[in-house]
Design goal:
Epimerase_deHydtase; 12 helices; Lipid_A_modif_metabolic_enz; NAD-dependent epimerase/dehydratase family protein; Rossmann fold; alpha/beta; NAD(P)-bd_dom_sf; seven-stranded parallel β-sheet; single chain
């Protein structure tokens, strides 16, 4: 089946990686990549349009290109990456605008994929061992980023209820690990010692960056309506993770006044946002049976993802010296895309 796909957030790591993966499939006859900033990685077949989340502009693109599948990868799930106002506008207002561009009786869109986060559930002392998709968070959001995610997901579910003919998929990812990821957790695990809160040894699931792209690709090419937790098999305590990384576990943050203590660490460049402070206390587990029933198979378990991250940390100095960061240059990209002098490989059948 031929697909015509629009990906939002191609300036993010996930949007760019997913576009690259979709380019390999000849069944994807059109891939439109949009974002307010330039793409994060080189794209061969995808057509890039520099646009934000203005619903009128997105709607024009959707209708003009007869888009049938929209993948929204923009959601900010790490509050250290942007100012609070920007995060809220991107997560809540941006999501509503993307959905508005997809809806209506004359819309060509038949599938919407929304990349969300396990921060939807929060972290509390009396949480279940594993959250299932039917469970709602037991307490009001503690952190602003959690409130944003709940509000954005509510908008997605309202869109699904109003547009019964559209297959709507929400993926709630656990924390990611990988050599190219930069998050609050990868920063903490890259320290000489893994910090923790005194008296707590929380449970963690970590998904490798390739499995995040793999799960997104899976629900684009297969119908998997509804909400799906995306977390690999296996749960590790933070002390076990430190051991796999070959580092000491250092639970030095005080159990009371943790926010004040992390405020002091911010001054030395170590940012521990509110949503991560809760995880450092209580951890979290996701039930992954629904996404596996849809046919997706994880490449790596939590343990294997941590081991792969440990190997990447050891090789980090060599990778940084060998690889120049990608930089989008419009003239070069247009030459590579359109010049008859450029040899192009046929996409995989």
């Amino acid at each position: 089946m031929k697909r015509r796909i629009l990906i939002t957030g191609v300036d993010t790591y996930w949007g760019g990686r997913l576009a690259q993966e979709l380019e390999k499939d000849a069944e994807n006859e059109a891939i439109i990549a949009v974002s307010p900033e330039h793409p994060s990685c080189a794209l061969l077949r995808s057509e890039y349009v520099r646009v934000g989340t203005q619903h009128a502009l997105l709607r024009r693109i959707v209708h003009a290109a007869r888009i049938d599948t929209v993948v929204d990868t923009r959601l900010i799930v790490d509050s250290t990456t942007a100012p609070r106002r920007v995060v809220h506008e991107m997560n809540v207002l941006g999501t509503m605008n993307v959905l508005a561009a997809c809806g209506g009786p004359d819309s060509p869109v038949t599938k919407v994929v929304f990349k969300s986060s396990a921060h939807y559930y929060g972290c509390e002392r009396d949480d279940p061992g594993f959250f299932t998709e039917e469970m709602h968070r037991p307490y009001p959001p503690r952190a602003p980023i959690e409130a944003d995610i709940v509000e954005a997901e509510d908008a997605v579910q309202e869109f699904a209820a109003r547009n019964a003919k559209v297959t709507v998929t929400t993926l709630r990812f656990c924390d990611g690990l990988g050599p190219d990821l930069k998050t609050a957790h990868t920063a903490l695990l890259s320290l000489p010692a893994v910090p923790g809160i005194l008296g707590f040894d929380p449970r963690y699931q970590f998904i490798h960056e390739d499995d995040i792209v793999g799960a997104l690709h899976h629900v684009v090419v297969n119908d998997a309506p509804g909400i799906h937790n995306v977390a690999p098999d296996g749960v590790l305590s933070l002390s076990e993770i430190a051991g796999l990384l070959g580092k000491p576990f250092a639970p030095l943050l005080p159990p009371w006044g943790t926010g004040l203590a992390t405020g002091l660490t911010n001054r030395i460049g170590l940012h521990i946002p509110a949503e991560v402070r809760q995880q450092l206390r209580y951890g979290r587990g996701l039930d992954n049976r629904r996404i596996k029933r849809s046919g997706y198979r994880f490449d790596l378990t939590t343990r294997e993802a941590v081991q792969a991250f440990a190997a990447a940390l050891r090789l980090k100095p060599f990778r940084e010296s060998a690889n120049a960061p990608y930089r989008y240059e419009r003239e070069v990209e247009e030459f590579l895309r359109w010049s008859p002098s450029v040899h192009r490989e046929e996409p995989h059948e």
